[in-house]
Amino acid sequence: MHSPLLEQLIQSLRCLPGVGPKSAQRMAIYLLERNRTGAARLSETLATALDNIGRCEQCRALTEEVRCRICSNPARNSSILCVVGSPADLYAIEQAGSYQGLYFVLSGHLSPIDGIGPDEIGINELMALLRDKPVEELILANNPTVEGDATAYYIAGLLKGQGLVISRIAHGVPVGGELEYVDGGTLSHAFNGRQLLR
Fold first, then answer.
1. pTM exceeds 0.70, yes or no
2. Is residue 198 one of the residues assigned to a domain?
3. Structural domain tally of the chain?
4. N or C: which end of the chain has fewer CB atoms below 10 A?
5. How confident is residue 197, by pLDDT bands cut at 50, 70 and 90?
6. Is 176 a domain residue?
7. How far, in Å, are 7, 56, 76, 90, 193 from residue 67 at the CA level?
8. Does the structure show a pLDDT above 70 at 1?
């Protein structure tokens, strides 16, 4: 049986995604036995981050500044706004390096069955931003799930007839993928989103 403090540490580490009891135990023992310096640095950094990181007043990305570095960068194309479901989605798009517009970060996706509606994910804030900013194109980069699709269609419906170009990121066969290993849903999206070769 673990000591009470060690058990508390193990249980605390289980809040991380994909970390079960065994992984949490290994992490806790590693930090205490082999890397106390790293554990202290992790603890200090986490405490500082919790105290200082909030949301950007414009796009709702995580930042310790009032306005994040993307929103305050004059080189970004402010006429294009990409809507994502989480900060992790924003970082994934940024790491790809091809998008140069601005973002708006929702707090997940609509899920009426779980009681998650437009107010809970920030759609009202998105609509307010679109009223205040001269956006020409809205890119919906929601996950290709039932909830992601519902969120994208809901937002598009709210903006119908407002003269705004609304697009959705393409879904389909990954680069370097082989068709025989791609699932049917992905192939269906790929066929429906096909483009003409010029």
1. yes
2. no
3. 2
4. C
5. low
6. no
7. 39, 5, 14, 15, 35
8. no
